[in-house]
Amino acid sequence: MGGSGTPAMPGANLDVYIFSLFNENLKQGPEIERNFGLFDRDMRSVYNLNFPGKGTGKSWCIASSQASNSALQNALDWACGQGKADCSAIQPGQRCFQPDTLVSHASFAFNNYYQKNGATDDACSFGGTGIKVSTDPRLSKLQQVGRLPLLQLSRYGRRRMDC
User: Fold this and answer.
1) Whole-number pLDDT of residue 100
2) Helices (H) and strands (E) in the chain, counts
3) Which residues form the X8 domain (predicted)?
């Protein structure tokens, strides 16, 4: 947790999949088959995990799909120019160029600027074309189009791309 990785892959961020939320005490078969859950049948935690019940506190800045193309283009030009957002990843042929839409490119640039400038409300204004959200837009995008995250190879194996 927290990017600590494993002894073989220190510092790696790992995806974790939960097989079962609850132990299944009535399941047939060997004892081991009944004990894959995170919680016992009486809701006691089986493992010492931190489930604070709070959000991550993270936020992102995306482009409004309701904004005019000219307003978005002006805001994108400002973010990548005077605003000094790193827009290299949304250039043709680069890893975040697709989808090749103004809203997608503006969202990438807006969020880059927003994160670099303290994630404040002012850093997500862009003349009224920016929207602050608390759900990672990369995950929303994947759910909407029904596809798996893009993966890239790294020295630690496959990792989700950050577009």
Assistant:
1) 92
2) 3, 6
3) 59-140
